[in-house]
Design brief:
It is built from 9 helices and 9 strands. By secondary structure, the protein is of the alpha+beta class. Strands 6-5-4-9-8-7 form a 6-stranded antiparallel β-sheet, with helices on both faces. Strands 1-3-2 form a 3-stranded antiparallel β-sheet. Helix 1 crosses helix 3, helix 2 packs across helix 3 and helix 6 crosses helix 8.
Length: 253
Amino acid sequence: MATAERDIMGGLAKGLLAIETFTAERPRQSIAEVATASGLDRATARRCLLTLSHFGYADYDGKYFTLTPRVLRLGTACLATMPLPQVIQPLLDQLSNQLGESSSVSILDGSEIVYVARAAQRKVMSIGLMPGSRLPAFCTSMGRVMLAALPEAEARAVLTSIPLLARTSHTITAIPALMAELTRVREAGFALIDQEVELGLRSIAIPLFNARGAVVAALNVGVAATQARSEELTRLYLPALKLVQDQLRTLLS
């Protein structure tokens, strides 16, 4: 249902834009940087940031702002109301213990994946991943299986809507190559990533379906490149992933 313009709180919308500019790559920003990243004018960005600081959602050292853990209350409240994390976590813990590797579930949010559940056996990435963490969809195994589930035109629109920045020398950034990879993923039913997100990391992911057959999330296992060669991932991990996929098919709405 469309919302009338008079019912939209402009101040809240601008504050949310300011919050969303903070990422793992930009955890500490000036007023000018937030204004540029959000598209807000400098004065509006300043008021948003000072308001966040006043209510404890941001720290301010006189030049730079950083978000505080209080912001996690917003994400935690959302995750707590989502049935997916509650349903998947026990199976995810079991899978991770069985394989001895870290496993995760994420959903697609525009051009990014958002982690909603995770069972960590060992640290396989330099950044800490947890529910609420975000990564680009185009270069992640979970992102690719979810992009592959979209109509081709919609998947292409997602890829062309953002700068496709190479995270490593292995990252595929050309649209034709990515579209060809999505076709392969769609036909195979799983995605393999070999050090495209971070050097030394390989992962395999499959889609998670609901009872109606729609893709609602993705499940992956991430391993250190020293643990297994890329061609070994399907043999070592795909059967266990598919078992969880089958178990969840009738549980997810």
